Amino acid sequence: MESATPASPAPSASPLLKIRNLRIAFRRYGADPAEAVRGIDLDLNSGESLAIVGESGSGKSATALSLSRLLPEPPALIEADELSLAGHDILKMNDRALRKVRGKEIAYVFQEPTTSLNPVLTVRTQIGEALALHRPEIKDRDAEIVRWLYKVGITEPEKRLRSYPHELSGGMQQRVMIAMALCCQPKLLIADEPTTALDVTIQKQIMDLLVDLRASLNMSLILITHNLGIVEDVADRIAVMFRGKIVETGPTKEILANPQHPYTQALLECVPRMGSKRPRLHAIDYAEIERALG
Ligand code: ADP
Ligand code: MG
Q1: Which of 25, 74, 170, 237 is the most buried (most CB within 10 A)?
Q2: Among residues 38, 45, 2, 43, which one has the least CA distance to residue 21?
Q3: What is the pLDDT of residue 7?
Q4: 10-residue averages of pLDDT along the chain (294 residues)
């Protein structure tokens, strides 16, 4: 099924995020630009959650980063008929305005906390800097940091203020990252493979935490993952990406129960089933998918 319908939620006057015909290419020396994202449409309402699912290299992260122009331009070349976030025309904004959008409207949690946390700064300094930049009105910054550490499930948060990233486990680091992203109260959180680097038991805890926080903060969430097996309890809708395009989109339950596109079907086949002794790991039949794409 070629996706004629955009990944549309219930109609609303102005969605939080509106993407029309987004294209991202990367300049290459001595070759044509590499097209990473090839014309995608996406809408997201306030408080809604969407999973963007697809294998590595399908353009998920490039899409996410382009929403606040975090991709270096050049080599990236970002074009769209429309790219609006919380009423901002993202492609027309200058750096200064974009810095305000990051944090206030949109925040990110990435796969590797170690690449996002500064190893020489304490938890207090890292979260404190985010607060100073985006919520300067807060007088008692330490109290606010402790409040967020508590919210993300960090025990003895007062003690943790003075911790450096290496003194924390991977799961704890990811919780600090989440606290840092959420303390600015963004309208949209992008979690890009947030649990891929973590042990399976910790993965579940972090996903549960994201689900709880999204509900209690009434925030929108885009979960990016290559694993269709973790989206069921997290996302209202799914958009399946394949080679820079959205090939299928719809409510999570419908897609999981009745995937239409052969690529989605192949991704689902790759999910190890709970309770089955031997997970069925199928190779993806790319020839068939290419035929379906036409
Ligand atoms: P995903 O997140 O789905 O794994 P990405 O969005 O990271 O995929 O990448 C999509 C494509 O764009 C890949 O082919 C990747 O090599 C390319 N790409 C991503 N970032 C850059 C960059 N900074 N420079 C050049 N090519 C890039
Ligand atoms: Mg990625």
Answers
A1: 237
A2: 38
A3: 57
A4: 51 81 93 92 95 94 95 94 96 93 91 81 93 91 95 92 92 90 93 86 88 92 91 94 95 94 89 54 70 70
pLDDT at 115: 73
Q: How far is the CA of 192 from the centre of ligand 2 (A)?
A: 7
Q: Which of 68, 65, 66, 73 is nearest to 33 (CA)?
A: 73
At residue 62, what is the residue type? A
User: What does DSSP assign to residue 100?
Assistant: H
Which amino acid, one-letter code, is at 56? S
Residue 246: per-residue pLDDT: 96
92 alpha carbon – ligand 2 mean position (Å) = 25
Q: In this structure, which ligand is nearest to the CA of 244?
A: 1
CA of 24 to the centre of ligand 1 (A): 10
- Ligand 1 atom nearest the C-alpha of 58 is 3
Contact 74 CB / ligand 1 (< 6 Å)? no
Measuring CA to CA, how many Å separate 66 from each of 135, 141, 144, 169, 188? Answer: 24, 31, 30, 30, 14
Q: How many beta carbons lie within 10 A of that of residue 174, not counting itself?
A: 30
Would you state the structure tokens that stand for residue 225, as one six-digit string? 């993952």
Is the pTM higher than 0.85? The answer reads: yes
Residue 84 pairs with which residues in a beta bridge? Answer: 18, 89
**DSSP states along 268-290:** HHTSPPTT-SS---PPP-HHHHH
Residue of the CA atom closest to atom 20 of ligand 1: 62
pLDDT at 8: 55
Distance 193 CA to ligand 1 centre (A): 14
* Beta-strand pair 17-28/82-85: antiparallel
Structure tokens belonging to residue 193: 């493979």
